[in-house]
Every structure is written in structure tokens, then in C-alpha cells.
Amino acid sequence: GEAPLTQRERVAPLVHPFLGVAQASPLPSWQATIPNQAFAAVLDHRIQGMAVFPGAAFVEAFVAAGQELAPDACFSLADINFIAMLELPPGESVYMRTSTGNDRTLTVHASGIGEDAEWVQHASARLVTVPYRNQDPDGDLAGLDARCPNRLAREAIYADLSQRGLEYGPAFTPIRSLGLGDDELIAELDLPETAAQDDFLLHPVLVDGCLQALVAFSEANAAAVPVSIGRVVFFDRLPRRVVCHGRVTDRHSDGLTAELTIMDLEGRVLTRLHDIRAQALGWVNSHQDRTRPLFHQWHWQPLGERQSEVEQPLRLWKAPAKPADPTGMKSCLELLDEVKGCIAGGEARLAVVTRAAQRVVDSDVVDPAARALWGAARVARNEFPDLGLILLDCDEGDVITPWLSELEPGGEYALRGAQLYRHRLQAESSLSPFLSVAEPGTGFALQLGQPGQFSSLHYRRVRRRAPGAGEIEVGIRYVGLNFKDVLKAMGRLSHAALKGTFFGYSLGMDCAGVVERVGADVQEFVPGDLVICCAAQGTF
Length: 540
Prior knowledge:
Helix content: 10-25%
Number of strands: 26
């Protein structure tokens, strides 16, 4: 018969489209399947070609969880962090689990549907049950209109967003009008007719539309998306039509900080979003076809039948079994001795054989100790190129000898069963949305697309300006890598720890370069001078 737990989850009532059904766990948690019938429109939320679960939808999930945990209390959300993008593969669904902790922390993890799928954290927040204050006074809509006189048509707004890589479908185009002022905006938004309203408190389409409006303050060709929100104060459910007031409170080299107030058409405040940290995804390269051949990635390529039966002189060294060396340190030292022996004896080639050091096929499980040995062998190959060191990773079988004649000096190979693979660089057919190329003569800066993901580091174009009085422009030639930069890229330093510091969120502190231009009143430097300096706006 059906297990009691499975039956309970199958017949349990749906709490919320993003929470799904309650789970049997010591602390409250819920699990939903995304996309679902109530929010199929999520597939219209696309960032540079990828369907992505909106940050506004994570906010809605946290608000819904707050109502479940504190139904009779006033509450707000604090320290909302969007840790990693939740991509939605075409034609596939994902599980999304919202969980609580003893300290009222809220987290959202997601996983593919399958036995081997792993859970990945995508967002976190903290539930604050201390009342914020009574509902804020009504907004002055007429005054906001007067301060934001520069009007943009709806078609122009979404054409601009599309150029920046934010390609929204019809279900995610709620902005009807947008007025801009001095670091201030007012927008009117209308929920599309096909969108359901009753299931949501802060409808993610409307909140996402308010965040879309902030992109108007980004640099040309850049798309600033939220990476954190300091606080969300929820007063009342959003109706189908709302007015949003946005204000930029700070600007950074890689984005901006802003706050949003969402009101009804009479100016009654419904919710506030404070300390929104928006970060640019990067410059959308308009010459992608020209630059595509520049990008390559490593792939394991299966080789065909053996071409040669001629044995070539080759010295073979096999890594010891894992129980004898669980960390890989002993193997690395033994490999070093082997390399010394080859160099001393004038050996022509050395083949280093490892076990489970590489993930070649989906079923492979990598051994960290073997991985360390593989890295040490690569270093030895670079240090002694004349040795022609070969790397060969095998599975549990030991069918090595018949393949030795196929191994070219300096190559990396893997043997899985009877199939031999070679590690090759191949041109990348689909570019990451974080990749971009700076045009010659333009300024550019290194930026992190997603905190904690080193693969999202990319260069984006920045506007060069003439130096002001007492300023110099430096063409950077060398940059020092500091451990604080690593911590920033890993997402280990909070917004509170970086706010107000000299270097802030920028990457790179010190550099050496050449003075390009000088501003008025600068006497001690002239163009062409070599300098060493620190820069608050970053040096990478």
C-alpha cells in the first residue's frame, strides 16, 4: 500500500503556489513544484535567453511563509539575499523547498526532479515579528508626477530592457507608464489579464515590474538586477493596478542601492522595499557573432579506433590505492620523486595514471585525493615541458597497455571501460550571459555576476570621464589580488560589512599603471608618469 508520508503529501492542501504543501519535518517547511498551474507565467521571465525564477517571487514565498508562521502578528522581512539564480530548463520542472530555522531564518532551496539531483540554496531571509510601525501615510502622487517629468512609453521601456538582455514575455510586462526625475521615478503598473491575482499577496509580476523600472537608472547597455534587499515591509495585498515610487539612495561602481514604495491608485502605501542592492549583469555585447570564436571550453572528446600498434618508449607511474593515501599528499610527494628520476635518467615520456580524478561521464564520482594528484601532475608538466608528461585517468578497470601508443606527449586522457577520451579545448557554441568583451579604447571593470560563483566574474564597459580638479586618470597595467577580493567574490562579506568602507563593493585595491590624463590644478603628475596607487572604485 501507499506509505503514510506519501499519502499525506498527496492529499495535503496547497498552502500557496510557491510554498506548495507542508512537509513532515521538525521545523516548518513546504515544498512546491515550479512551474505550476498558478504561475506558469514564470517562463516569460527571461534573462539573456534563460527562464529564471524572479527575485520578486522569492520575496512572495517568504511573505507567504511569514503569514503561515505568524498569522496574527505584524511582521516584516529583513536581510533578503538572492544567492544564486534559479534557472528553469525548457520543458522541465524543479522542486522548491522553503524552510525555517530556530532563529526565524527562512531559506529557499531548489532541486531537479530525479534521484541524483542535488539541493542548492537560492535565497534567504529573516522574519522579524516586531511591528515596523503603523501604516505609512499616503503618498503624494501629484507631487511625484511633477518631480518625474521625463516620460517613457511602454514600448520604449521594454525595447530598452530587451537590448540589455532582459527579454520579458507578455506575462511579465506590467509597466504601463514610467516617469523619471533626478534619481527618482514613478511608474504605473497593471497586472496582465491572464495573470491570477487571488493566490498572491505581493504579486511577483507587479513587484518584478517595479524592479524592472530601476533598470532605467543603470548605465547604458547594462542590466541591474537585485542581489539583496535590506527590508520588506508588507501592509496589504497588492491589487491589479498599482503605482510605484522608486528612489536611488546610493550608486556603486557595479550597480546601485534604491528603495521602492508600492501604492494603490489613491496613494495608500501597500508595501515598502528598503535598501535594494542592484548589481549589473554586465555589458550585453552587440558584437557577439564576431567575438564568439574567441571563447573556448574544455570537453572530454571520445576517440575512435586505435590508429597505431607501435609501442613508444613510455615510463608508467600509477597512483597508490586510496586507502593508503586518503588525502593525496603522499601521492603528490611520490610523483615529485618520480619526476626527478625521469629528469635525471633522461626519460622521454612519463604517463601518470590516476583513478577517479576526473568527471568524464555522468556516473563518475570524483575522488578529491586523486583530483589533488592530477593538479600536481599538471604543475609538473608545466615546469618540465620537455618531459612530455601524460595524464591518464582510469575507472575501476585496468585496461591500460593497449592504449599506450595512442597517448600523445602532454595530453590529458581518460579511460572508461573500453572507451578512450581526450581532454580538448573546443569553441563554445552557446555563450554564458556573463561573458562580454570590452571595445578597444573604452574603460572596463571586473564585476561579479552572482556572489559565490567565480564563473560569473566578467568585464563590463564603464564610462570614462575627464579628470576633475585634483584628479588623474591612470591606465592600469598591474593589479594586486587581495584576500578581501576573494571574500567579496565568494559572497562571504555582508552588505553591512562593506557599506561605508573605502573600497566598498569594488574588486581590486592597489595597482600600478601609467598616468593617461590629469585634471586642473595637478602639478606633481603629467601624462606618461609611472604610478602606484589605491582606488576606491576598484582596480580590476
